[in-house]
Design a protein that fits this description.
The protein has 161 residues and is α+β, with helices and mostly antiparallel strands. It is 63% helix and 11% strand. It is globular.
């Protein structure tokens, strides 16, 4: 280290170490990004795949007036399902619950949820074929009295079919 004699003061040494760390991090990011970019599908293909996943989720949600996607062991999934089933039952609506951990299509549904809606958090709720959101969004709608109204609308749509 004799050639680094100008780094004898502590502030300069710290600055040099920080600079080396940044350069190393930049090199790691560059080398890690290059293979991923080369092996990943083009943006158009990713967009097409995302659109196909959204179409499949929409089709699944449209087949059921109320769809709750969750995990069988998840307390929040059970609570939201019970809440939605109670409210929907008052209106004669059935609730379809899909447990991603115990269904053959579960991993695909989970990947689609992440690709389309940006989340793998469970539960996720669809009413009348429309994506509502997760636990927090569903509870917020319930507390504001809007969840029941959405279920009522879905019951109206269902009766017209």
């Amino acid at each position: 280290m004799s050639h680094l004699h100008f780094l004898r003061t502590r502030p300069l040494r710290l600055l040099a170490l920080a600079l080396l760390a940044l350069l190393s991090l930049a090199a790691i990011r560059t080398s890690a990004a290059a293979p991923a970019a080369a092996g990943s599908p083009p943006a158009a293909a990713q967009a097409a795949e995302r659109a196909e996943m959204k179409r499949r989720l929409s089709k699944l949600a449209a087949r059921h007036p109320v769809l709750v996607v969750g995990r069988s062991y998840c307390r929040d999934s059970r609570r939201i399902r019970a809440l939605v089933e109670g409210l929907a039952g008052e209106m004669g609506l059935s609730v379809m619950a899909v447990h991603v951990d115990s269904t053959a299509e579960g991993p695909e549904i989970e990947r689609a949820m992440e690709a389309v809606y940006g989340t793998t958090a469970m539960p996720q709720v669809f009413i009348g074929g429309r994506y509502i959101g997760g636990r927090d969004q569903t509870m917020d709608l319930h507390e504001r009295g809007k969840l029941k109204a959405m279920l009522h609308d879905a019951a109206g749509v269902r009766r017209e079919l």
